[in-house]
Amino acid sequence: MTRVPVIGASGAIGRPLVNHFRKAGAGVRTVTREPTDPVALGAALDGVDAVRAGVVRQPCGDVAYSPVHERGVAVDGMLRGPANGGGPVTGTVREVTGAPSVAFETWAIEHASEFLGTMWAARIHEYGDASVISLDEVPVPRPGPGEVLIRVAATSFNPSEAGLRMGLLRDVLGVTLPHTLGWDVAGTVVTGAGGFVPGDRVIGLIDGAAAEYAVAKASVLVRAPERIPLADAAAVPVAGLTAWQAVFEHARIGRGSRVLINGAGGGVGLFAVQLAKHAGAHVVATAGPRSAAAVRALGADEVIDYTRAPLPGGNDVLINLVADPPASVTRLAEEFVSITGPIEHPRAVRFVARNDPGGLAELVALIDEGVVEVEVDARPLESLAEVHRAAERGMIRGKVVVKVVK
Ligand SMILES: NC(=O)c1ccc[n+]([C@@H]2O[C@H](COP(=O)([O-])OP(=O)(O)OC[C@H]3O[C@@H](n4cnc5c(N)ncnc54)[C@H](OP(=O)(O)O)[C@@H]3O)[C@@H](O)[C@H]2O)c1
Question: Which residues form the signal peptide (predicted)?
Answer without folding.
Answer: none
